[in-house]
Amino acid sequence: MLTDDERAFYLRPSRASDLGAGGPPDELPADPGELALLVRGLMMHPVETEWRFAEEIPAGRLASDPDTRYAADILRLVLARDPAPLTRPRRLADRFVGTCRDFALLHSALLRHTGTPARIRCGYATYLVRDFHEDHWVTEYWDETRGWTLADAQVLGDPVAALAEKERYEIPFDPLRVPRDRFLVAGDAWRACRTGRRDPLTFGVSVLQALRGLPEVQGNLVKDVAALNRVEVLPWDGWGLAEAVPELLGGADYAVLDAAAEASSSAGFDRLRELYRTYEGLRAPRMIVSHSAYAGEHQVLLPAEAA
């Protein structure tokens, strides 16, 4: 069961998941599945548009959307393109072009707004690329019967019946209840690689050889710990231990990473909060580096986070 402190923590919006003054303009469903389908109808992933929908991304969209950090800004862009109620799925040309992180962020933001504790999880999916652990971010929400439950809004069937989907994700399970052995949170991935149970080179971004291996898992572990502390960054952000060269790490650094992996895998709330507050290499500073493929490498000043 959740403690009162943990429940309150994951119900309270973060800087990234805050939906703005007054929240969304429409009345929204509270059911996690209905909210996931709503998110699916507002977004498209830049990689899936051609193979899944045989569509092209509207001109200029990649320059404006993927580096959007805050859920309120995502909704602002969506409503600027089509002011219809958020419960109405958009045509592809009017959707926000976002990564898996954005699907997870908006889903968790709407869950928090409608009364369900939720958070983002950074890790690796085994259901996107055969025989590979693909870098992927999903939502984790609290179910009173099942406890913390993983959900992947991105891989749902598209809610717009008029869109003839060229292909679908081949998912052999309910995307609203992703099994733990089909999505490894970054802490589990780190421990599996460190103990030799999994090959680190099977973890990362399948189409980019440079983004595979233990350093990539290390980065996701740090970002997962940050997300569990309600600091939801972009996938290409970096700081401290998130991008430290493994060969330059000392025993104390590995001890911190191992402790973080254990706490994040077992969802030890108090331990996660303590580690994040205590170790500077884990904690996201106000100034971080964005290694964006869309906007180029640049520094970003994050807003101060609430306690």
Automatic annotation (TrEMBL):
Transmembrane segments: none annotated. Residues 92-153 form the Transglutaminase-like domain. It comes from Streptomyces smaragdinus. Coiled coil: none annotated. InterPro entries: Papain-like_cys_pep_sf, Transglutaminase-like. It comes from the Bacteria. This is Transglutaminase-like domain-containing protein.
